[in-house]
């Protein structure tokens, strides 16, 4: 097969990785007036619930959720100075999150945040989750958990991965007055399997809200809240949610369901449009095949499988994630950073990767592996010095943290992205 023409691009910053850390890095850099190219797969975003966490649990092994994430961040930074959060102050993290929420709202997905505290939000299992910010379409679910007013939870025939009956059964031990019902989605009657994304796109067709409301109205009874899996539109979900609440006469809220999740699809599509509008060049199906540092910048060979675009960048920021995102690779000889073979903080041997008990509350040391950085979020070597002066890293690729267990994924991604871009800008000046 003959290779097509190679595109050549010159930018101030190349961001490798299209998850939340990559998106945030590209946004903050564009806000600084830098030219940016963002490359990598955006597929990881569809695994998100849509919730934005800052810090849910302060210590390894602690099962008590934090009510104040900002005090928790301060305590965590003092106790674990190598944790990426220690590179930022709580004020900087809060400022970064506020700005990112504003960007997300401008992209068409308004969020509600809990201010000085954390929310308790719904999950598909019925167990509450500690988080700091939720999509507006899920905000009424937070209120429902704090109320004892009657609530109707709806599931749809053929939709896998969400059961209103299970949700109600689990939550009923914590919160009374939960009823469950299952019905056919209008226009998809009789199907053995339906998909949340298809339902969400169907909800944006004129008349769809009225048809669904008509189907649900006989089941309302005394319900003061109505919850359903996340499927209330893709590009105009807030308006669809308000419309359903108006038609049913009570607050309506979405509940995250199994990936690929509709909230994740919304974020991916909204961010792609919003970043393009800000001048960011997107290479969403390209990965970094090879990176070379020379002179005053970087040369990146990018493509799906073979060279399709050559990027010359003054600076490079790694937001490639861990094992799922491809930023780290687990091998028999150890854990390797995939693009530049950077030093990786990791257990001394494979026997120390995991604890004996899978559900050990302290977590597994493998999940704290990653790249160590300085205060400017530049990867450092064993001597503690930056490996390259114009190389940065942000998000879950950073070591000394277990973002899943501590519930700090979005805060970690956004705060370190802003810290890295600010340091890059300072160095350029």
Uncertain regions spanning at least 5 consecutive residues: none
Share in helix = 25-40%
The radius of gyration is 22 Å
The SS-based structural class is alpha/beta
Distance between the termini: 46 Å
How many alpha or pi helices?
11
List the secondary-structure elements in sequence, H or E.
EHEHHEEEEHEHEHHEHEHEEEEEEEHH
Average residue pLDDT: 94
In terms of DSSP E residues, the strand content is: 15-25%
Please provide a written account of the structure.
The protein has 429 residues and is α/β, with parallel strands linked by helices. The chain has helices spanning 20-31, 69-79, 90-106, 139-145, 164-171, 196-202, 208-216, 237-248, 262-277, 403-406, 409-428, and strands at 7-16, 36-39, 111-113, 119-121, 129-131, 133-135, 151-156, 178-183, 225-229, 252-255, 281-283, 287-294, 297-303, 309-318, 328-331, 334-337, 391-393. The strands form five sheets. Strands 1, 2, 11, 12, 13, 14 and 17 form a seven-stranded mixed β-sheet that branches. Strands 8-7-9-10 form a four-stranded parallel β-sheet. Strands 3-6 form a two-stranded antiparallel ribbon. The protein starts with 6 loop residues before the first strand and ends with a helix.
């Amino acid at each position: 097969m003959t290779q097509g023409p190679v595109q050549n691009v010159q930018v101030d910053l190349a961001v490798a990785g299209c998850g939340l850390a990559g998106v945030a890095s590209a946004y903050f850099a564009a806000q600084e007036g830098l030219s940016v190219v963002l490359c990598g797969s955006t597929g990881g975003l569809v695994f998100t619930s849509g919730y934005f966490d800052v810090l849910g649990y302060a210590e390894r092994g602690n099962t008590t959720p934090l009510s104040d994430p900002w005090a928790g961040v301060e305590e965590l930074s003092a106790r674990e100075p190598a944790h990426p959060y220690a590179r930022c102050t709580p004020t900087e993290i809060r400022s970064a999150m506020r700005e990112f929420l504003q960007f997300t709202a401008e992209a068409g997905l308004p969020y509600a945040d809990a201010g000085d505290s954390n929310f308790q939000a719904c999950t598909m299992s019925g167990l509450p989750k500690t988080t700091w910010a939720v999509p507006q379409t899920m905000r009424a679910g937070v209120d429902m958990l704090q109320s004892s007013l009657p609530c109707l939870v709806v599931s749809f025939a053929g939709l896998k991965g969400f059961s209103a009956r299970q949700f109600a059964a689990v939550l009923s031990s914590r919160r009374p007055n939960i009823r469950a019902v299952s019905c056919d989605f209008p226009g998809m009657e009789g199907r053995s399997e339906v998909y949340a994304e298809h339902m969400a796109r169907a909800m944006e067709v004129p008349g769809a809200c009225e048809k669904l409301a008509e189907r649900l109205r006989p089941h309302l009874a005394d319900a003061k809240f109505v919850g359903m899996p996340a499927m209330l539109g893709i590009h105009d979900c807030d308006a669809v949610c308000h419309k359903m609440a108006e038609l049913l006469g009570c607050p309506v809220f979405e509940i995250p369901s199994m990936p690929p999740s509709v909230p994740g699809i919304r974020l991916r599509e909204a961010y792609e449009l919003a970043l393009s509008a800000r001048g960011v060049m997107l290479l969403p199906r390209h990965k970094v095949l090879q990176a070379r540092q020379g002179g005053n910048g970087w040369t990146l060979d990018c493509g799906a499988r073979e060279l399709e675009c050559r990027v010359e960048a003054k600076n490079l920021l790694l937001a490639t994630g861990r094992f799922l995102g491809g930023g780290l690779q687990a091998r028999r000889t150890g854990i390797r950073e995939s693009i530049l073979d950077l030093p990786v903080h990791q257990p001394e041997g494979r026997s120390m990767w995991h604890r004996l008990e899978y559900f050990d509350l302290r977590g597994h040391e493998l999940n704290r592996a990653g790249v160590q950085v300085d205060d400017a979020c530049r990867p450092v070597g064993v001597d503690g010095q930056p490996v390259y002066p114009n190389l940065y890293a942000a998000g879950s690729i950073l070591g000394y943290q277990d973002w899943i267990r501590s519930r700090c994924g979005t805060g970690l991604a956004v705060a370190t992205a802003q810290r890295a871009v600010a340091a890059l800008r300072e160095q350029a000046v």
